[in-house]
Amino acid sequence: MRTAGLLAAGALATGMILIGGATAPAAWAAVTTSAGQPATAATARTVATRPAAPAGVRSRLAELANAATGADLWSRSSVLERPMGSITKVMTAYVVLTTPGLNLNRVITVPSGIVAYDEEYDASTAGLQPGERLTTLQLLYAMLLPSGCDAAYTLADAYGPGLTGFIARMNATARELGLTRTHFSDFSGLPVAGEYATYSTAHDLIGLGRAAMRNKTFAAVVGTREVAVAAGHGHLAHTWRTLNPLLGTFPGAAGIKTGYTSAAGQCLLFEAKRGSTTLIGVVLDSSGVNSSTLAAAASDATDMLDWGFSR
User: Fold this and answer.
1) Cα distance between residue 159 and residue 145, in whole Å
2) Where are the domains of the chain?
3) Are 81 and 264 in contact (CB under 8 A)?
4) CA 145, CA 244: separation in Å to the nearest integer?
5) CA distances from 124 to 22, 31, 92, 226, 307 (A)
6) Torsion angle of alpha carbons 109, 260, 122, 192, nearest 10°?
7) Active-site residue, 299 included
8) Can you list the positions of beta strands (E) in 177-304?
C-alpha cells in the first residue's frame, strides 16, 4: 500500500498551506441541439460521430457521473464488489467531519499502536511519531494527502472512541448513505482481516465521494497539493504532499483520493470542474499488472473526464 512513501518528519498547528442549411436527410433530420433547435448537417454529423464511451479505459470497474445530480454518464461493472485500498480513508475523514460538536482544533496524541500497524502491512505513512500532539485538521491533511495510515489510525482511535468503535461508525454511516454494497473492516483500507474484507463498488464510491465533497473542509483538504507545518510544542515539523496525480496536471481537478493494495490494484476516486459542470468518477484496478504506481489510473481518469466534458 506504500505508494509514494514517507514524506517528511514532524507537525504543527499553523497548518500553513504552500500550497449548416440544406434539407436534412432522414438519418439526421430529427436530431436537435442541446437548446432544442433542429440540428444542421454539421452538428448532426458531430452527434453521430461522438464516442458513446471513453476510449482506452483499462479499469475493470469504473463509473463517471455528474457530481451535482449523481447521474451516471458511463460505467463498467460498477456494482461489482471490490477492495479499494486507501479510498477507504474518504469514509474515515467523512465520519470524523460529521461528528457532532466537532472541533478541528482538538489536539490528539499519536498512539504507540501506529508503529506495529504500519510495519505489519508496510503501510504508507505521514511520518508521525508516537507521542506527537496534532490537531484533528492536521491529521486530516496527514491522512488524505500522503495517505498516512498512521494518521488514519490516530483519528480512528480518537473518534471511535477506539478502533473497533470507529469501524462500526464507518459501517453505520455507509448504511445511512445508502451504500448497500460497501463494508469496512479497517479505517485505512489495509487487508487487516483479509484482502477482500474491506470492499465497495464503483457506484457506491461515487455516492461516498459526492457526500464527502459537499463538506467544505474535506474538499479544501483534498484540493491541496502540499501542506507544511512547522515544529512546535509537542510535535515535529512535517511536509505532506498529495499523491493525487491529477492535481496540478488536469485542468479543474479538485481531488479526491488514491488507493492501492495488491488485491485492489490501482484505484483513483477523482473530481474535476470545467465551466459550470463538475464530474466525479472512480476507477478500480486500472493496471493489468500488479503495479503500485498510479499511471494507469491517472490515464483512465483523464480519458474519462475528457470524454465526459466533451459530451
Assistant:
1) 20
2) 57-310
3) no
4) 8
5) 62, 52, 16, 17, 32
6) 70
7) no
8) 226-229, 238-241, 253-259, 267-274, 277-284
CA 105 to the chain's CA centroid: 24
Cell of 194: 483479509
Q: Is 89 a catalytic residue?
A: yes
Between CA 160 and CA 163 the distance in angstroms is: 6
Is residue 147 annotated as a catalytic residue, yes or no?
yes
**pLDDT tens-digit series, residues 229-251:** 999 989 999 999 999 999 999 99
**pTM, to two decimals:** 0.85
Catalytic residue among 78, 147, 188, 299: 147
CATH of the structural domain 57-310, one choice from 3.40.50.720, 3.40.50.20, 3.40.710.10, 3.40.190.10: 3.40.710.10
Which listed residue (59, 75, 78, 86) is catalytic?
86
pLDDT in tens, 1-47: 544 333 333 333 333 454 333 333 333 223 333 334 444 554 444 44
The C-alpha cell that represents 283 in the structure block: 476507477
Q: At what angle do helices 163-176 and 88-97 cross, to 10 degrees?
A: 90
Residue type, 75: S
Helix (H, G, I), strand (E, B) or coil at 74: strand
Ramachandran region of residue 85, left (φ > 0), alpha (ψ -120 to 50) or beta? left
89, 124, 257, 299: which one is catalytic?
A: 89
